[in-house]
Amino acid sequence: MAREQSTHDWLLLSLIPGVSTRTLMKLSTMYASPKEILAVLITEWRHLPLHKTARQWLAEHGHRIEQALSPVLTQTDRWQQQGGVILDWHSPAYPTLLKEIYDPPVVLYALGRTELLQASSAIAVVGSRKATTYGVAMAEQFGYQFAEQGWQVISGLALGVDGAAHQGALNAYQRLQAGSTIAVVATGLDQVYPSAHKRLHEAICNEGCVVSEYALGVVPRANFFPRRNRIISGLSRGIVVVEASRKSGSLVSARCALEQNRDVFAIPGNVTNPQAEGCHLLIQQGAKLATSASDVLQELEYPVFERQAQATGEALPVSLENRTTPIAKEPQQLVLSQEKALHESDVAAGDSVQSDPIQDDHCRDDSVQSDPVQEDPIQDDHCRDDPLLMVMGVEVCTADELIVKTGMSWAELSQKLLMLELTGKIRSTQGGYQRSLEQRNTDRSFSV
Question: Domain DprA winged helix: where (predicted)?
Answer without folding.
Answer: 386-432
